[in-house]
């Protein structure tokens, strides 16, 4: 009798294993064909450059072609939505800007649920922003800028890459933290916003280093601080906003590889290890440094955690800045 039950039990176990086998086989063979890395912005920007560097070296590391596919539109949401709705098989991945996707989610502008649609694979790169003022603005430090803003409430203007962009939201966070009132002037992208700063149409911007880099030593602008918690290896002499007295301030444009939720963990782990190896290569580190960025990788769990932390941070900023009206300003 006992024997009979044992046979049934082992037959049942075998059946379970057989059912699980195809999924195992898939992640075991992964990657068996080319992988698409969706960059949700046009060619030429920071995320596109990051995507191309990783795609090149991941192709060597994984033995399958990793292709960058630019799917631009809606500030990154068209590409992200495409990946969110793709098969969770490890062949369609997103190179996402954690901050801007989180801001759109906080503003209620994502066509998918950011917190549930994706699982983290690895960080890819960080691009700090810097605080830059037109050289005619009488402020040589962050302390002086805050004092000036308090002296002239609502009169100092800041340019941004557009309503609801990380560039605008970084300033909204700064305003909330320093109790200052600055006037928002949105532009259609970083290029026009930086041009307005150079021409003196706006007093200041919070903008990525790559967007400002060519103008840092021209005498037309003054760079006061970096927005990240640590100093930037590209500009090690520049204090952080925290060092300049804005407690707890930390904004970095973080780019990460995200996969659709329910992608097999074995695939995620394999990809994360490949990312880690690529990110540590001196060649790759050097290529990012040339762009004023830093190659940074992380474990899948750390990446998911960072995504959740960004979502929480920007939801609080949107509430503090007056809810959804913010993106119209």
UniProtKB/TrEMBL annotation:
Gene3D superfamilies: Bordetella uptake gene, domain 1, Periplasmic binding protein-like II. Transmembrane segments: none annotated. Pfam families: TctC. SUPFAM superfamilies: Periplasmic binding protein-like II. InterPro entries: BUG, Bug_dom1. Residues 1-25 form the signal peptide. It comes from the Bacteria. The keyword Signal applies. Keywords: Signal. Belongs to the UPF0065 (bug) family. This is MFS transporter.
């Amino acid at each position: 009798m006992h024997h009979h039950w044992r046979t049934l039990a082992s037959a049942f176990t075998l059946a379970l294993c057989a059912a699980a086998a195809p999924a195992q086989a898939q992640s075991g063979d992964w990657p068996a064909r080319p992988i698409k890395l969706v960059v949700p912005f046009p060619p030429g920007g920071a995320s596109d450059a990051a995507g191309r560097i990783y795609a090149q070296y991941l192709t060597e590391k994984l033995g399958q072609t990793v292709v960058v596919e630019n799917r631009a539109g809606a500030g990154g949401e068209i590409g992200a939505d495409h990946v969110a709705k793709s098969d969770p098989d490890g062949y369609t991945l997103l190179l996402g800007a954690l901050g801007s996707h989180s801001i759109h989610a906080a503003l209620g502008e994502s066509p998918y649920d950011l917190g549930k649609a994706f699982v983290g694979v690895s960080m890819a790169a960080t691009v700090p922003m810097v605080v830059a003022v037109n050289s005619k603005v009488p402020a040589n430090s962050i302390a002086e800028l805050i004092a000036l803003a308090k002296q002239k409430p609502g009169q100092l203007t800041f340019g941004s890459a557009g309503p609801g962009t990380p560039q605008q939201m970084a300033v909204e966070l700064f305003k909330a933290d320093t109790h200052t009132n600055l006037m928002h002037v949105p532009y259609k992208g970083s290029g026009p916003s930086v041009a307005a700063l150079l021409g003196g149409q706006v007093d200041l911007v919070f903008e990525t280093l790559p967007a400002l880099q060519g103008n840092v030593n021209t005498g037309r602008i003054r760079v006061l601080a970096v927005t990240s918690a640590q100093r930037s290896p590209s500009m090690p002499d520049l204090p952080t906003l925290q060092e300049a007295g804005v407690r707890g301030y930390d904004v970095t444009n973080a780019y990460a590889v995200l996969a659709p939720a329910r992608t097999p963990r074995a695939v995620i782990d394999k990809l994360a290890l490949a990312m880690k190896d690529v990110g540590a290569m001196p060649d790759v580190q050097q290529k990012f440094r040339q762009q004023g960025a830093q190659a940074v990788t992380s474990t899948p769990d750390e990446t998911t955690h960072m995504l959740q932390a960004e979502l929480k941070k920007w939801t609080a900023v949107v509430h503090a800045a007056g809810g959804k009206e913010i993106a119209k300003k």
